[in-house]
Amino acid sequence: MENLHDKRKVYEKSQLIESEIKQNPIEQFRDWFLEASASPAVSEANAMAVSTVEEDGCPRTRMVLLKEYTYEGFIFYTNYSSRKGKAIENNHKACLSFFWPNLERQIIIKADLEKIAENLSDGYFHSRPKGSQLGAAVSPQSQVIPNKEFLEEKLKELEEQYENSEVPRPDNWGGYIAKPYEIEFWQGRPNRLHDRIIYQLEDLDWKISRLAP
Prior knowledge:
There is one protein chain. By secondary structure, the protein is α+β, with helices and mostly antiparallel strands. 25% of the residues lie in helices and 33% in strands. It is globular and about 60 Å long. Its cofactor is FMN. GO terms for molecular function: pyridoxamine phosphate oxidase activity. FMN binds at residues 62-67, 77-78, 83-84, 106, 141-142, 186, 196.
């Protein structure tokens, strides 16, 4: 057994002050995201944890890539028949989390999820490399399969089938938009007195508060 009690890090790279933040959380997200994207210490700024609640009442978290964000929300793509897709079908609420340890920052987003329009899913699907399109078509995501070769054989079949034609987007694959109603920005600070600023949607306005660390 390893004792982890003394594994600590001092956070002191930045701070989060009310007089300097944006009044709209999407604009604050944009500023932080651009900083993370420009940092050589962050390999995938758009990698986010997506937590959903499954039928047994237990949350389940996995890493997903953010593909677009707008004033309306955050867009990612997945298989609608996957475990996350089924969880979202039963409970439209989810939590998205970004963690950029080298910047000593994290963002936690509570949101309602909706499927995006089919033509938008079509457009993104056909913008992907053909190998990724075929992978999405081949994989019965989250289902039990007999072995690895099962997928490899199906992939070869589809490669031959669509060698000279466009791969159609599977009906059960597409995008979700996570429409936020609460966004928390966390900035690490010395002595564990971290800065936590939370935006909460009330009617059409965002209420801004500071939380104790």
